[in-house]
Design goal:
274 residues; mainly alpha
């Protein structure tokens, strides 16, 4: 169990810490986290399935400033670990992921808003002294401290097993748990609605209707619909490129200024009397 706990620690540290170190490269998305966790624990297939399921759940999860609705990295690592190591069913692991994400978010909010503030006076002092070496060391040092503590949550959770997590979840009132489950079911809808709100235009409405018909009435799988979408994108892009090329060629072939009517009349008279 110690090995799997260490792999869970490493998965959180790589995905969560690496995401912010590399400039928000989406390493913290459940789809990537599930893949990394499954790869480290020797069951990449289960990791991909869990990551894809949790990606749909946390798709609408948006963290603003120091307020965090739920922490998807720890939730994905623990849910995937319980499925691979403890043999917990995927549906039960998905149910556990929501309260785990909320509990992890509480810890992270405390870390961001309280614990990490103790380093602020040091940073101010080094800035006043223009000691850039110490500023860089403090920056990377606090990064290691912060994500080590966050990753320790996954380490402890996997090392103790799903039993303590289930015990904590059992202490949550039934009404609250029902609300969490309902919220978890709504999150995918909210996520897709947010994406549609950003992308929706009258020109793109026809593609939405096409995707709805293919999925709801023709019952095509998501992979087939996505493949058709890629084909349509390539066709539209190729057509737009050809149209732009033709317009450029037409502009080159067209003279810069057309001759006036008087000039044309004079040219015709000269030809007539020649």
């Amino acid at each position: 169990m110690l090995f799997y706990a260490a792999m869970a620690f490493l998965a959180v540290f790589i995905c969560f810490g690496g995401n912010y170190l590399t400039g928000q490269t989406m390493l913290e998305r459940p789809l990537v986290v599930g893949l990394v966790t499954g790869l480290l624990m020797g069951d990449m297939h289960a990791g991909i399935l869990m990551g894809a399921a949790l990606e749909a759940i946390f798709l609408g999860n948006v963290n603003i400033g120091g307020v965090i609705a739920a922490e998807p990295v720890t939730a994905t690592v623990l849910a995937t670990s319980f499925t691979i190591v403890s043999g917990v069913e995927q549906s039960a692991a998905l149910t556990l992921a929501i309260p785990i994400g909320i509990l992890a978010a509480i810890v992270i909010m405390f870390m961001k808003n309280v614990f990490m503030n103790i380093f602020a006076p040091l940073l101010d002092r080094y800035a006043r002294e223009n000691d850039q070496t110490k500023i860089v060391l403090l920056h990377y040092g606090t990064w290691v401290i912060y994500y080590t503590i966050v990753a320790a949550i996954a380490f402890v959770g996997v090392y103790l097993g799903s039993g303590p997590v289930n015990a904590i979840v059992d202490q949550i009132p039934a009404t609250v748990m029902s609300g969490l489950k309902a919220a978890g079911g709504l999150l995918p809808v909210v996520g897709f609605a947010m994406l549609m709100n950003l992308l929706w235009t009258k020109e793109l409405a026809i593609y939405y209707i096409l995707g709805f018909v293919l999925t709801a009435y023709m019952e095509l799988p998501a992979v087939a619909v996505a493949t058709l979408g890629v084909i349509i994108c390539v066709m539209v892009g190729t057509r737009d490129y050809q149209m732009k090329t033709m317009m450029k060629q037409a502009q080159v072939a067209t003279p810069t200024s057309a001759p006036s009517a008087q000039t044309r009349q004079e040219a015709e008279e000269e030809d007539f009397f020649a």
